[in-house]
Amino acid sequence: MRKPKPVILWPFVQIPKAVRLVKEAEKIFSSAYESTQWLAVDLSDGLLKLTLDRPPVNVLNITLLNALAAVLGQAAADARVRVLLLTARGERYFSAGVEVAEHGAAQVEEMLAAFHDVARRLRAFPLPTLAALNGSALGGGLELALACDMRLAVADAQLGQPEIRLGVFAPVAAILLPRLLPPGLAHEMLLGGRLLESSDALRFGLLNRVWPREAFDAGVAEFLAPCLQLSRAAQLHNKRALRAAQGQPFDAALSLLERQYLDELMATHDAHEGIAAFLEKRVPQWRNR
């Protein structure tokens, strides 16, 4: 009597693993970033790079602003992101500002709401944000850069708020420029429309670094490298601490941050790992939690 052939089960015993892999893939692809007509989006090794791409001068319109807001909302909850970089394509302008045609009565309220939504999202972003100014940043273009934590630029970039020349003013810059520059200089830019050369912006602390154009890309990459090697969990608490302390009296801020440090930061794996690695003279192994 012939023995029955054994039943081949291998395609089926792999089902739990296959289901897990499918779910992981679905999770990844469901949170994938999509570039749009005027905004290129790339996530690689923890760096989320947003590139304005609306030639010739990367003017910001409502459609582009809404795309920016959507990506910022998605990225704020994305555990893969460690650093956000905002830059632009081209060599003349990072951005020449918001579309002037959308300042008219029919669209101005919608335009302001869209622009201020992006500014708020940049200010509230839970991880380090950098603006890499590949060219001049004017009007709303500079305001987006001001909303970032740090700013880098090419040597021939100019920075300015020329809105007053059009009979209007820049709400975001009116708040942030006097906090980032000596008041007299900020007022000269806001009230007189002065353009600031990148060398002066660096000298007054508005820019963190300036490079010649031929060294710009390499300089930005070198500047970013240390941030990308740090614990994401620690940076989340770091950003929260910086925001929470703003505008607070010293004693009140210190009490608030002391509790955050003891109750929340010290509950993370990475805080203990970083201290242990230092004492043991080894490289820390971050788990980003």
Any overview of this molecule?
The structure is a single chain. With about 290 residues, this protein is α/β, with parallel strands linked by helices. The protein folds into two domains: about 15-230, 2-enoyl-CoA Hydratase, Chain A, domain 1; about 230-280. Helix content is about 45%, strand content about 15%. Helix 10 (about 230-245) runs antiparallel to helix 11 (about 250-265). The longest helix is centred in the middle third of the chain and has 17 residues, at about 110-125. The radius of gyration is 23 Å and the shape is globular. InterPro entries: ClpP/crotonase-like_dom_sf, Enoyl-CoA_hyd/isom_CS, Enoyl-CoA_hydra/iso, Enoyl-CoA_hydra_C. This is Dienoyl-CoA hydratase.
**Helicity, in percent?**
40-55%
Order of helical and strand elements: HHEEHEEHEEHEEHHEHEHHHH
Q: How many E strands?
A: 10
Cα distance spanning the termini: 62 Å
What is the CATH level 1 assignment of the largest domain?
Alpha Beta
- How much is the average pLDDT? 91
Q: Any idea of the CATH topology of the largest domain?
A: 2-enoyl-CoA Hydratase, Chain A, domain 1
Largest sheet, if any? 6 strands, mixed
In DSSP terms, counting alpha (H) and pi (I) runs of 4 or more, how many helices? 12
Percent of sequence in beta strands: 5-15%
Question: How is this structure best summarized?
Answer:
47% of the residues lie in helices and 15% in strands. It is an alpha/beta fold.
